[in-house]
Design brief:
heterodimer, A: mainly alpha, B: D-Maltodextrin-Binding Protein, domain 2, 50% helix, globular
Chain lengths: 318, 441
Amino acid sequence: MNGSTSKRETYAGFLMVSPWFMGFAVLTVYPFLASLYWSFCRYDLLSSPKWVGFANYRRLGSELLAGETLALAIGNTAYFALLSVSFSVIMGVLLAVMLSVEVRGRAVFRTLCYLPSVVPIVAAAVLWIALLDPQQGLVNGLLVKLGLPAQGWFHSTSSALWPPSWPEDHAGRILGSKDGLVLMGVWSVGNLLVIYLAAIVDIPPQLYEAAELDGANRLRQFWHVTLPMLSPVVFFNVVIGLIHSVQAFTQIYLVSDGQGDPAGATLTLSLYLFLTAFKELDMGYASALAWLLFLVVLLITIWLFRISQRWVHHQGAA
Amino acid sequence: MTRKLLVSICSLMVVLSMASATYSAERVEVVFWHFWGGRDRPIVERIVRGFNRSQKKYHVRAIAMPGSNLDLKFFLSVAGGDPPDLLNHDDPVVGDWAYRRVLTPLAELATPDEILQLNEWLFPAARELGTAEGQLYALCNGLDIRALYCNRTLLSAYKLELPRTLDDLDTIAETISPTADKAGRNQIGYLPDPRRLWAWGVVFGGEFIGPQGSLTADDPKIVAALTWMAGYARRYGPSEVAAFRSGEQALTGSAFPLLANRRYAVVMDGQWRVRDVAEANNAAAKVGEIADEIAVVTLPPPPGGVHDAGWVNGNFFVVPRGAQQKRGAWEFMKYWTGFNGNQAAAAEACAAGGWIPPSQVIVDQTAYQKALAEQPLLREFVTLAASPNQRPVPTLPVSSYYYQEVIRAAQQVMYRGADPREELRAATERVRHRLREVRDE
């Protein structure tokens, strides 16, 4: 291959990637940098952005310290992210282990478990709004039949970890809107399930044989072989799951009437950002919120990578 | 045969395209965005057809859009430089948009005489809804008034009368209050909605804006109204209240919560429910039953409160600054509302939709008077429309934010047990701060 051919191939390569590069520059890099600039401006979309220095970030700080809307949004986001990721990982791993066992109709069970994840998010949200309706919903109907109290779901400010403090409240009505969202998230665990299944199939059978020879029962095999071998995949799913939960918007918007209802119980960072930008027309503060969101996700990801060395088992690692 | 068919189709296409070209050369298109759906859509389409038939110069193309986030879509169309010529909307956004120079003042569309007439012609609440910074930016085409719908049959069963005072209303709520079963409650006499602090605050004698334009949502009388509302949440428990209300806002027809299984004895709602009551009556008559008797009363004030008071909003037309066909938009607005002509047809449309006209002139039209005679419940709302005590959300550069913050404060109190005074003070302070920021921009 001579020099001119190599050059031509390089140019052709650049030409081929240029559509992607232009899209990346216009649709990703530009908004990224523009939002950084706007976060230092007062900007309402119509008039030109006006430089205000750190005013938006000062407002971020004061809202956080005063425990106002931003603090509420961060609390709600953390609750939703932590619970939905934890339950998704637990459910995903358990289902994958069960579905990896050779039983009759395994393909049907796998399909049934995967099916919810292909339901469009809007359809899923509408379905869950109906299922979790406190008065007519199927879920509450079932709970009552089982002798359990009906729950408030998307109409309640309560939550499983922080039940209502008012003694006058209806006894046992503990689960609220955030718990409903977590339930929705766990329902569509199918995507993770596929990854776990693939990873389980990849575990060398001789590891189980060795464990069996050492006298390990099924539970110990799961704990000492399956889980360590799955840990890189669990780690991947935790990181991606956390990012997705912190950025979750559509389902939250739909179940909360677009306002974070009831009483801000479902106001997450992404919804607060949307309302600030497009309802209050404060694009500057919304951009500052977006950067806060970005930094939060970045720091969590870095922290997860740091602690991963303690619990993620890499095959072939010393 | 196939060839003949092809030739016929081609000829038809040529004729249609020529007709279309001729039409566009003769008539100027006015793009009109609205959110009217359901039972109202055919009425709106009839108005548009009527206008288009009456016109040689303009042709209105109505585009129905989902009401959710219509303000956002409109705002983005303005920011993108391609707004519609006319928008019909019902959120308290006139102040926000006028301040940001998004809207064309009506004085630029109408003659000075027309503006003078218009100010006289409109009900005070309709005028206030469209006025920002001292001039008209929006033309109201229908008011939304709230009153109490009362199930008289149910009240009689408990030997109760229609509520004339706040104590009467409390007595109804306390008397008609069966205990909850495992699934929750099935019936509550009356239950205030946090969103209606805007109404009860005024009934208690509060003002959301001071004479000098200061924000006063923390007015002691508004605090008193919220404290009274919170008493209901405390009685039943916030989760119980929230669960009971679930999904009932959108229910129509015989599912209207007042009517469905006698869910409530008293409900605050707007004039559009008159149609639901009529439908329920017709449905009962069809199966040989007698429907419950429903009455409408004004919001009962506490001692020292204000009579015929409440919160009013409404539908209004606005013309964006970047609109291409402002004159055509103005002609259509006049046609729809019946200002300076077309009063009879405007009254007919209001009667058909059960809408409250923006002017007494339209109310006095034969068609509307006939509707009032046929639907006595509607008369109570129309009487209230002329009351100066029906107050809209103040038109400010932050009206929308103010509206939401007051509701948020009421929700925090009713659903989370927060202190009414403290919540309203904090909300007012936030809005004041935001107002200062916007004015400094």
